[in-house]
Request: fold
Amino acid sequence: MQTYRVLLLAGDGIGPEIMAEAKKILDWMNAQGIARFETEEGLVGGAAYDAHGVAISEEDMDKALAADAVLFGAVGGPKWDDVPYDVRPEAGLLRLRKDLGLFANLRPAICYPALADASSLKRELVEGLDILIVRELTGGVYFGQPKEIVTLESGEKRAVDSQLYFEHEVERIARVAFDLARTRRNLVHSSDKKNVMKTGVLWDEVVRRVHAADYADVELQHILADNCAMQLVRQPKQFDVIVTDNLFGDILSDVAAMLTGSLGMLPSASLGAPDEATGKRKALYEPVHGSAPDIAGQGKANPIAMIASLAMMLRYSFDMGDWAEKVEQAIAEALAEGVATADIAREGSRIISTAEMGDLILNKLQALAG
Ligand code: IPM
Ligand code: MG
Reply:
């Protein structure tokens, strides 16, 4: 059996608590001989800053580059509000994405039947929801240069962030979206602001070209990003795959998350290009939510997005799609028992802790494994 090296970067706030629940599942799979995961741990975000004065150490970057996959918790918190910009907690995550070349961020929003009433939208609007946001993750305004605050001669300050995209960046993310759509309902909405942005004009041009050349069998729709945000809360089930840039993807995926009942439900996979020799992709898996410092250390955090991220790791990094489905099924069955962490509580549900939710999901998985 092949050994898979997994780097665990729990990060800050609720990161360590939810990571502990994911680790239980990895440990169980090891003990059962289902797979051989070799886990290592590292520091990222505020935790790395406190220990090393940086958002991620070179040593931990090397571990991430050597790993078959990285499981990532969350970073940030008010404790580090005043640290220098270059070493703020988020810089660790951005460096991982950039240096590992993780350009394709997959953010599936699925509404589990038991949670249809936990959504802020009416049950009939979200029941059965299954959409996938494909977010470009290593370009755009997050990384474009110049990115600075300058003091002008007048003494006034001026800030600039640069939104830029190369054709190859748009082309490769478009291909990921079209390929995934073919495994789903075969519909892609490409979202940009071509009515005001040059990057949007190029985005749309490249997506259309790739579509016409290689994916004419997939239905392609264009949607302006502001309209997309509105349609997501008006009629979310009209979407299948949404492909969009780094910044719009950040915003639209938070909207989509809330449709599923809670931000605590949304997993994500960040993938690089397949290696030419081995076909393997660098990959990082993380919940879409943040470090929730207000509830950290209290056993209140919802571990489901973290555990569902682990399921994505099984599917996309280790070709264990059957086990990914079992983990997702275990989550659905746990929720169907009427239990909930506080964020997904609905009428009549029994509130349980982070660890209790993790244990229940593991129990369900054990039962499914037979
Ligand atoms: C996300 C987060 C990050 C982002 C932050 C923590 C830098 O909001 O993964 O959606 O903006 O990409
Ligand atoms: Mg975000």
